[in-house]
Structures are given as structure tokens and as C-alpha cells.
Structure prediction request, 295 residues.
Amino acid sequence: MIKICVVCGKEFKCSPSDKKVTCSKECNRINKSRTHKGKKNTWSDESREKLRQRRMTSNLEKGSEAGAKIWKLTSPEGKVYLVKNLAAWSRENCALFGFVDGNEANAQKVMYGLRHAKHGSEGKAYARTTLYKGWMAESATEEDYRFFEKYKDSDLSILTAKQRICVIMRMRGISIPEIARECKIQRTTVYRRLKSATRVLDGLPVRTEHEKDYAKKYYQEHKDSIKPQIHEYYESHKERYKELRDKWYQEHKEELKKSKREYNKKYYEENRERLLNKAKERQRDATKSENSPGE
Prediction:
């Protein structure tokens, strides 16, 4: 039997006895959100106590913000928004999508439209588009969101041109390895520019070029005495350094994994023939070793 999806209008096959009215899981979620609108699920005291024991009530009290995903939304004009609570953001920005009335129904359309676009960009079979009203939706990290929120209203004109480029790209949710590739510079250079830029934006003093040159000269002249001091300081603060290193790694773990995968993929593509030849040589040597008579 052929039915018409009540959400997207697409035809789908099902048995005559089947009560399905939607063509996919995504459309089913949208339909449930419509049909259950205004209905409340009441929690019993027993259920609340069980959740409290599992340390879940604190998140429920904070609302959806506590477990919200980070969204990177790009407008048709190229402006980027990093959003932590998509539902709340949709309610406040209905006008960006052509809705005069920012009511809950229009906010729901914006939210589900962006979700559908994100699923489309991820290659989900049920998503028929990668855009919603020209907007693109992607995932972002907590670190991306914190940087964007901290500096989105800052006066970037006080930065140098190179610093400003790195800050703008970072605020667009672009990772440091990707910035380095696009700008054709080293990652350490990106880190250094971002560090200098954020010090300026935070109102902290930044060393002048003259001070940097003097520091380099001083180090070269006194490095024999400076190095033992650095080593001694490190040994006495080793645990603190370890904590900072572990914290930094946890904050950048996904970014580092992604960068390593991209590097390995690129390296394999550039050296594919050589790597395959080496693998064949190892296989031949192993075969010869197995077939050769023992001593």
C-alpha cells in the first residue's frame, strides 16, 4: 500500500494494517513533536528519587543547556554563529529565516529545519537536503564555542592584519591545523598569533619587537646558566606541568585525533606506491624466511 507522509509529503510503502503515517524516523520525530505539543509528562516522586540517586537531577534542573550540543550555523551570506542551545537560539532568531512572528511554531520549524540540514550534510539517507533556507548546520566543539562567546563582540581593529585573520577563522569554528593549512603557515605560528591576539583583546601587556629581540639576545648570551634554572624549576613543578598538559590534551583531544587522521590519509595518498612496494617486499622476505631450510 502507498501512503503519503504527513510531514514531508513523500510517498512510502507499507502494509494496509500498518499505522505508520511518516516515511522516516526523522519525519516521525517531527510528527510526534507536533502531536504531543502541549502535553506534559509528569514525574513521580519515585522516579525523581531514582534520577537523583543517579546524579541526573542537576542536569534536569539546569534544563537543556546542561547537555546541549554545540552547533556551527552558517548563513547564506557567510556569517557564522556558534550556538550551544539550538532551541533557545531558534526562538530568538526566527527573523533571520524570514519569519515575522517569533512564536514557538516558527521556532520549531527553524530548529527542525537546521537539524535536517545537518543530517543531510552528514550523509544520512533520510535527509533530502544539506541546507535550510540557505543555512548550513554543522557540529562544533566546546572549545570553539568558548572562544566565539568570549571574543565575538571584541574590537578586532586593534589587532594586526595577520592576528585578525587567525582570530576571525578561529571564531568561525575552524581548527588550528585547518587555519595553518589554509594560511600556509606552521601550527606554532597560528598558536603564537592567537596567543598574542587574545592578550591584546584581554587588555594584557604584549611585548614589543624590541623587547622580543632583547630577550632572544639575552638568552643566547646567558643560556648556559638559564638552562639549569629552567630544569630545576621544571623538576620542582613537575606535577603542575603534568596537570596542565593533561588538561590541554583533554580539551584538544578530538582536534588532535582529527588532525592525525587527516595527516595519515594525506601521507598515504602522497606515498601510496612506495608504501605498497615496501609491504610487498616485507611479504616476500617473510615468505622466503618460511620456505628456507633451518640451519
Notes: Residues 8 and 241 are 55 Å apart (CA to CA). The chain has twelve helices and five strands. Confidence is low (pLDDT under 50) at residues 55-66.
